[in-house]
Fold this protein.
Amino acid sequence: MEIITDRKPDALSVPKSAIVTFKDQPAVWVVESDVARRKTVTLGMRTGDRVEVTGGLEPGDMAIASGQHRLIEN
């Protein structure tokens, strides 16, 4: 059962599958100029299969939600 205690209509969120852990910190891989880059993020509320990102991403960032285990950072 899920109880919603707050609504943030303008909240930035990503699929749960986009969240990875790097050095014990949550992160998300994003596409920037056709290059994958890992960004450390701060997480907020979780709703269904979505996770709010309260820091580390900007609106318009393209999060990678699958295949991250194949990515390496240069």
The radius of gyration is 13 Å. The chain has one domain: 13-70. The chain is about 0% helix and 45% strand. Strands lie at 13-15, 19-22, 25-32, 35-40, 42-47, 50-55, 62-63.
